[in-house]
Write a structure and sequence with these properties.
The longest helix is centred in the N-terminal third of the chain and has 15 residues, at about 50-65. The protein has one domain (about 5-25, about 50-210). The chain has helices at about 50-65, 75-80, 90-100; strands at about 5, 10, 15-20, 20-25, 35, 40-45, 110-115, 120-125, 130-135, 140-150, 155-165, 170-175, 180-185, 190-195, 195-200, 205-210. It is mainly beta and about 210 residues long.
Length: about 210
């Protein structure tokens, strides 16, 4: 079974939803079913016509990738902006907390990413700045930064993930806790997540995430 590691950590008000150690599974044909989400949202990706899916893909793409989108920051300027987070000075404590399945402290939200039961990286979201999430390797070196839109954590909101060198990795439109639209660094549609399953533009299930 093929595995794809994707670092996405949605930390909101102490609740953690992680999509890491994602597995491509054998997909069986299933009868399309519309699912009603909270807030009068309906997950109908499997039922609507292809033209409607394409329209939705373009709609959320245009919202995510506006004229102000930065695909690659100046490396020096990006590192200067995040100079206080390039190295996690408290990485030993954070590592041990995450390893012991602690997801929240008084000052931060935490989550971890594992490979073969080994904690290889972790994410920290400080409660005094909920619009940023910092991803570190096991030694506390910054690898990625998530930047959320101003209305976070109120749905819908958007996020963009950048490498520590300022290069865009991905962008996500969050409709709800259960449903997201994901695009890569080239603004290409990757899939629509609903809970633990991702569907492509043709409504074919392509991925599952084990830690939803």
């Amino acid at each position: 079974m093929k595995k794809i590691a994707i670092l996405i950590c949605v930390l909101m008000l102490g609740k953690t939803a992680i999509s890491a150690d994602i597995q491509v599974t054998n997909i069986q044909d299933k009868k399309p079913t519309s699912v009603v989400l909270t807030g009068n949202l309906v997950f109908d990706w499997l039922d609507i016509a292809q033209i409607d899916r394409d329209t939705a893909i373009e709609k959320y793409k245009s919202e995510l990738f506006g004229n102000d989108t930065v695909f690659k920051y100046n490396k020096k300027e990006f590192k200067k902006e995040y100079k206080d987070f390039l190295k996690d000075a408290d990485y030993k404590r954070h590592y041990m907390l995450v390893k012991n399945n602690v997801k929240e402290t008084d000052d931060e939200n935490l989550c971890g990413f594992y490979k073969r039961n080994l904690l290889i990286s972790y994410a920290v979201q400080y409660k005094n700045n909920l619009r940023s999430v910092y991803y570190y390797d096991a030694l506390g070196n910054l690898r990625y930064v998530d930047k959320f839109s101003e209305n976070y954590p109120n749905f819908p909101y958007m996020s963009k993930q950048y490498r520590a060198n300022g290069v865009l990795v991905s962008a996500i439109y969050f409709m709800s806790h259960d449903m997201q639209y994901m695009y890569n660094h080239n603004a290409e549609f990757q899939g629509a997540w609903y809970k633990d399953k991702m569907y492509d533009r043709h409504a074919k299930q392509i991925l599952t995430r084990t830690n939803w």
